[in-house]
Design the sequence.
């Protein structure tokens, strides 16, 4: 029994790395974070040749510089975790560009396997490789793979095993940077070794990074060494006429292009491909934007219209489940356990889980946009719009993800290179209506608005969020984050047919994140909030409910005519509801809601809404479960889908709209707060966000309610 | 006819070809472009862009398609190549 084989998967973005990762590990994946930073870490396992293989999918990078968080994370991982072998996924259509990363891995002295992926596309483009020669030049085995057809997976694992076991005999090349740089490198490496700062790293590598002016390495070096490195850099600049960073990079490219000149043949002139033909339409100067908007509208329409069919099934399933659990107790029972189970647990979590179909479809749509390559076009199309609000075209992607969930969206701001761009994007993301607000809209929109109005009402909420996000970003860029936006370069990968498997894994992982949140945090929040609505219990009621109920029940039992019986039943229900209202008003959450009531009255909210808003702090969707608990208290046997109808009796459409507006804009959920705190690295950004959003929500809702009331004449 | 006047990439008309003469002096911008596969001497074709256009310039270089922001496209210098190159080789 040998120890597991540790494999790290590296490669450029769009090299098909993730597809290969899925092929190797199948469903045995775990998504987490690298310690201390929120760059996603994907790990997976498989068995090959009676050996456990642990595969880590490194973030997609073009190089291993200290310029971006992803590159730094990938480099730190390779340096610290020391995997047995790195599989570098090369986009076989762009070998020269892709091999730059390979050279940087070679410099780290880590055993390497090169996967020439999408070999079929490269062949169709007339590229042929002398893989034996390339393999010798790079000192690494080369395996041709076609990720989306599942070809080459076993060969790749076999090569990884060979290299890890030291059975591959071609030595890794030593990249030489020319006599002048080499001389400086050698001197600097000696000083590094004397200062003993290299740790697990090679002294030569540390010296190289010091010459390259690498911030992450410089901070580990003592002042004397830095001075020496700067002097060396100055000497090189005066002799060679350029900065060592540029010269060293050029030497690497020289090595690569030398190798490719010998080993890569291109028989066809690169020209219009199918991808370009699609781009001629999708990025068309006039058609591009309408197509983009249409696709976005389609995404949301499908999410809601198609998603609501299984939502209906789930609703009735939960209603049946609720009834079945209720029936374990005698009718009219006041059991706290029954109340906890039916109202706290089933009511709370059920109210949230039934929206999983919407979220699955939305994330499937986003996965489709990403995997086909359209997402990059979307960023290209909206770049000039984004520039107008002072943001990067790339900010669009985290913002689009913000419509799914603010938490991954804020994490996705890591693709932005400047802190300024990142913070601006991060701060406005909660204004983009996330998936967790959807349950609130899906509850209130159908309940309060006629069918013809439902689409426009929903669209208006999304639009208000977008307008506010744009305004917010503009405001931030004009005040706190003044300055020129970061230069923009982005690759538009060729369009690809996504594989069902990749879409499935993609969608499942994101839905799972939502489910975990619903399953753990929301259950806890629901139970705590239910307890807040149930305790403390009122010791003495204002009226003698028990006596009155007993009297009505006696009359009911005695009544002979159906009309009379119905009258008594109504009286009974009214009594129970009156008692429940009194209970709720006395409970902790009722008291918080009541304390808030005078402040939120001008917005058209009563204390029950206030109570539910307190709950929405835990997570936006808790607003729904909280309301369902608040209203189920008086109607213990009412099924959850009636909540909408129940609310219709209490509020006007204007109030319902104001509730949705307030939920859209106000304070983000605790998970968002936490991730903003972590990603921004400071409490003040989190507090700024909470304060600004809640203030804006209050002001705007006040305006809408008061103006709306004036026009509609509702009280 | 081959025109040899050097101009910024952003001024090259849609559909035109050019050879990259120099990359931006800004070290970060330069290394980004290089890492993404654009080098001095590369032949590029402008797919979307040209004077008077909003948004980034989309260029084709070999099998790569890169969207380069306005600011950066002004700092990449190219030598335009005459129209005869546009005919695809059979």
Sequence:
């Amino acid at each position: 029994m040998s120890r597991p084989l540790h494999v790290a998967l590296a490669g450029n973005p769009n090299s098909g790395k993730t597809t290969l990762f899925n092929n190797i590990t199948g469903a045995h994946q775990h998504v987490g974070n690298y310690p201390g930073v929120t760059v996603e870490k994907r790990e997976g396992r498989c068995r090959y040749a009676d050996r456990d293989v642990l595969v880590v999918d490194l973030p997609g990078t073009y190089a291993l510089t200290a310029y971006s968080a992803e590159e730094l994370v990938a480099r730190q991982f390779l340096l610290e975790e020391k995997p047995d072998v790195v599989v570098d996924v090369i986009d076989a259509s762009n070998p020269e560009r892709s091999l730059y990363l390979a050279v940087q891995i070679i410099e780290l002295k880590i055993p390497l396997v090169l996967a020439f992926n999408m070999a079929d596309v490269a062949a169709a483009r007339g590229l042929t490789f002398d893989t034996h020669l390339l393999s010798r030049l790079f000192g690494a085995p080369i395996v041709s793979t076609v990720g989306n057809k599942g070809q080459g997976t076993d060969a790749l694992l076999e090569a990884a095993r060979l290299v890890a076991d030291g059975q591959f005999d071609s030595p890794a090349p030593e990249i030489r940077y020319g006599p002048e740089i080499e001389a400086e490198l050698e001197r600097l490496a000696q000083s590094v070794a004397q200062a003993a700062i290299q740790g697990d790293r090679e002294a030569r590598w540390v010296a190289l990074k010091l010459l390259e002016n690498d911030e992450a390495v410089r901070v580990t070096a003592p002042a004397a060494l830095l001075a020496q490195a700067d002097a060396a850099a100055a000497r090189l600049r005066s002799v060679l006429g350029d900065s060592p960073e540029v010269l060293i990079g050029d030497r690497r490219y020289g090595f690569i292009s030398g190798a490719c000149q010998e080993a890569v043949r291109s028989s066809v002139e690169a020209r219009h491909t199918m991808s370009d033909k699609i781009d001629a339409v999708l990025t068309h100067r006039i058609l591009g934007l309408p197509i983009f908007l249409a696709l976005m509208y389609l995404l949301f329409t499908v999410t809601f219209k198609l998603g609501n069919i299984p939502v209906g099934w789930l609703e009735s399933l939960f209603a049946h489940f609720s009834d079945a659990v209720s029936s374990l107790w005698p009718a009219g029972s006041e059991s706290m356990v029954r109340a906890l189970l039916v109202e706290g647990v089933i009511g709370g979590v059920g109210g949230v889980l039934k929206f999983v179909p919407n979220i699955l479809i939305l994330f499937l749509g986003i996965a489709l946009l990403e995997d086909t390559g359209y997402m990059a076009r979307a960023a290209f199309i909206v770049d000039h719009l984004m520039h107008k609000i002072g943001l990067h075209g790339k900010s669009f992607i985290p913002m689009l993800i913000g419509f799914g969930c603010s938490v991954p969206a804020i994490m996705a701001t890591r693709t932005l290179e400047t802190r300024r761009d990142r913070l601006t994007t991060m701060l406005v993301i909660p204004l983009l209506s996330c998936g967790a607000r959807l349950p609130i809209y899906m509850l209130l929109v159908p309940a309060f608005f006629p069918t013809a109005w439902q689409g426009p009402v929903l669209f208006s909420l999304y639009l208000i969020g977008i307008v506010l996000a744009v305004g917010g970003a503009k405001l931030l860029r004009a005040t706190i984050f003044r300055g020129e936006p970061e230069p923009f370069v982005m690759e538009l990968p060729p369009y690809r047919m996504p594989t069902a498997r990749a879409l499935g894994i993609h969608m499942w992982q994101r839905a799972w994140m939502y489910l975990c949140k619903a399953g753990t945090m929301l259950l806890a929040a629901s139970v705590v909030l239910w307890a807040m609505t149930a305790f403390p219990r009122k010791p003495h009621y204002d009226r003698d409910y028990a006596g009155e109920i007993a009297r009505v029940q006696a009359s009911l039992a005695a009544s002979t005519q159906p009309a009379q019986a119905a009258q008594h039943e109504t009286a009974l229900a009214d009594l129970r509801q009156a008692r429940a209202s009194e209970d709720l008003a006395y409970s902790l959450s009722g008291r918080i809601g009541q304390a808030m009531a005078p402040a939120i009255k001008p917005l058209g909210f009563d204390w029950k809404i206030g109570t539910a808003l307190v709950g929405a702090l835990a997570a936006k969707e808790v607003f729904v479960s909280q309301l369902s608990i608040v209203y189920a208290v008086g109607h213990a046997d009412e099924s959850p889908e009636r909540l909408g109808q129940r609310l219709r009796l209490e509020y006007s459409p204007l109030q319902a709209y104001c509730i949705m507006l307030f939920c859209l804009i106000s304070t983000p959920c605790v998970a968002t707060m936490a991730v903003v705190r972590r990603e921004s690295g400071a409490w003040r950004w989190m507090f700024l966000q909470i304060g600004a959003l809640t203030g804006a929500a209050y002001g705007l809702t006040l305006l809408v309610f008061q103006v709306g009331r004036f026009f509609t004449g509702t009280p | 006819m081959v025109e040899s006047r050097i101009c910024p990439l952003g001024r090259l008309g849609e559909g035109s070809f050019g050879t990259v003469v120099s990359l931006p002096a800004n070290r970060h911008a330069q290394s980004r472009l290089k890492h993404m596969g654009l080098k001095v001497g590369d032949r590029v074709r402008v797919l979307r862009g040209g004077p008077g256009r909003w948004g980034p310039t989309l260029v084709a270089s070999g099998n790569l398609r890169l969207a380069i922001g306005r600011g950066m496209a002004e700092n990449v210098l190219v030598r335009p190549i005459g129209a005869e190159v546009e005919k695809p080789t059979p």
